[in-house]
C-alpha cells in the first residue's frame, strides 16, 4: 500500500531530515507548518495555525494520510501554557486526520525531558538513575510531553491507529531558524571566537563537563521514526533514541575547537551561560557575514543560546539506554563527533559559516 505521510513541523531540524529520509525510500510526503520557513523541496506544503482547531481542520479538509509525524512544538512562557498549547496542537491534527479512516500510525517526537522534567524544573524531582530507560516512566512534575502523549493515546484508541513515541537527547542536524539547535549554535559560537580572538569557553556545568553523555543525530532519528512507523515490533511503544556512542564534554570540546582552529580556555567549574555573553554577537556576526558573503546575517536565525545553555548547564548526568530499540530490531548507529564535523562541513558548503 502507498505510504502517504504528513510531517507536522516539516521545516524544522527533525521534520526536514525526516522528509528527506522518507522521500529517499519512496514515501509520498506532505509538510504542515506555520509557513514561516520553507519546507524541503519536492513535497506538498500545507500551511496552518496548529494552535487553532479550525485552521488545522480547514487546511487538512479533503486530504488523507496513512502516517502522521509530530516534530513541532511551540514554546510558551510557562509549563502550564506549554501543556495547553502543545497538547492542543496534537489534538487538533489527530481529530482532523482520525475521522478520515486512512490513518494507520502516528509518531510523536518529544525528548529526554520526559525523564528530567521541563526546563524550569530540572533537578526539582527525583531524576531517575542513568542511563535513562523507558520503564522508568514519568516524573511527578507538570510536563507538556505527558499531555501530548495522553492526547496521542486517547486519539489512537478512538480512531484505531497505532502510535510510537520517540525521545531523543540533544539533536544534531542541519536546519535554519530552529529554536533548539546546539550543533549550529556551537558552530556560530566557535566562529565568533575565531574572528574576535576570544577563547572557546565551555559554558556549562561541571556535571556536564565531567559526566558521560550522548546525543542524537537528526538523520538517525529520521531512520528511527521510519522504522517504528513500519515495524510490528514498534507498534504502540515508547523509545529513547540516541546515536549509540558516549562521550564526555571534557574530551569532545577540545576536538570541536581544533576543527575551527580556536583555543579553548581551562574549565574552572563556573557556569558561564552563552546568553549572558552574546549581547554584541549580532553585530559581530553581521560583520562576519558581510566579510565572507554568508547567506544569513541574522544570528537569531542560526544560534539558540538559551537552548544550548539549558542542555550544557544541567546539574546532573544525562545518559540514555537504547536496549529497547535494539531488542525490537533497530540497530543503527552514528558517531557523535562525526555528526558534528559533517554538520560543520555542510554549514561551510552552504555558506552559513566561513570556510
From TrEMBL:
<dbReference type="Pfam" id="PF22917">
    <property type="entry name" value="PRISE"/>
</dbReference>
<protein>
    <submittedName>
        <fullName>SDR family oxidoreductase</fullName>
    </submittedName>
</protein>
<dbReference type="InterPro" id="IPR036291">
    <property type="entry name" value="NAD(P)-bd_dom_sf"/>
</dbReference>
<feature type="domain" description="PRISE-like Rossmann-fold">
    <location>
        <begin position="64"/>
        <end position="354"/>
    </location>
</feature>
<dbReference type="InterPro" id="IPR055222">
    <property type="entry name" value="PRISE-like_Rossmann-fold"/>
</dbReference>
Amino acid at each position: 500500500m502507498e505510504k502517504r505521510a504528513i510531517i507536522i513541523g516539516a521545516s524544522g531540524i527533525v521534520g526536514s531530515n525526516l522528509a528527506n529520509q522518507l522521500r529517499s525510500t519512496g514515501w509520498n510526503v506532505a509538510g504542515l507548518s506555520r509557513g514561516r520557513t520553507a519546507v524541503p523541496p519536492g513535497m506538498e506544503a500545507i500551511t496552518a495555525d496548529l494552535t487553532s482547531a479550525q485552521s488545522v481542520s480547514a487546511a487538512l479538509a479533503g486530504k488523507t494520510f496513512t502516517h502522521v509525524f509530530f516534530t513541532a512544538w511551540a514554546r510558551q512562557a510557562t509549563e502550564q501554557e506549554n501543556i495547553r498549547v502543545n497538547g492542543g496542537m496534537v489534538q487538533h491534527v489527530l481529530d482532523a486526520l482520525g475521522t478520515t479512516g486512512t490513518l494507520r500510525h502516528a509518531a510523536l517526537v518529544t525528548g529526554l525531558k520526559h525523564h528530567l522534567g521541563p526546563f524550569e524544573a530540572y533537578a526539582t524531582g527525583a531524576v531517575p538513575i542513568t542511563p535513562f530507560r523507558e520503564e522508568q516512566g514519568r516524573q511527578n512534575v507538570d510536563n507538556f510531553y505527558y499531555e501530548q502523549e495522553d492526547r496521542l493515546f486517547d486519539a489512537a484508541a478512538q480512531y484505531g491507529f497505532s502510535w510510537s513515541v520517540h525521545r531523543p537527547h540533544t539533536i544534531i542536524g542541519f536546519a535554519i531558524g530552529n529554536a533548539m539547535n546546539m550543533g549550529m549554535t556551537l558552530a556560530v559560537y566557535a566562529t565568533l571566537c575565531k574572528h574576535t580572538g576570544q577563547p572557546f569557553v565551555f559554558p556549562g556545568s561541571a556535571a556536564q563537563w565531567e559526566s558521560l553523555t550522548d546525543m542524537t543525530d537528526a538523520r538517525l532519528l529520521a531512520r528511527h521514526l521510519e522504522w517504528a512507523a513500519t515495524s510490528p515490533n514498534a507498534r504502540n511503544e515508547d523509545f529513547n533514541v540516541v546515536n549509540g556512542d558516549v562521550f564526555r564534554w571534557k574530551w569532545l570540546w577540545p576536538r570541536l575547537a581544533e576543527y575551527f582552529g580556536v583555543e579553548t580556555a581551562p574549565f574552572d567549574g563556573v557556569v558561564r551561560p552563552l546568553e549572558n555573553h552574546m549581547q554584541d554577537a549580532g553585530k559581530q556576526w553581521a560583520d562576519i557575514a558581510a566579510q565572507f558573503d554568508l547567506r544569513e546575517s541574522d544570528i537569531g536565525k542560526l544560534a539558540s543560546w538559551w537552548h544550548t545553555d539549558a542542555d550544557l548547564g544541567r546539574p546532573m548526568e544525562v545518559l540514555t539506554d537504547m536496549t529497547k530499540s535494539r531488542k525490537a530490531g533497530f540497530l543503527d548507529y552514528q558517531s557523535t563527533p562525526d555528526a558534528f564535523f559533517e554538520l560543520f562541513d555542510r554549514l561551510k558548503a552552504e555558506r552559513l559559516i566561513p570556510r
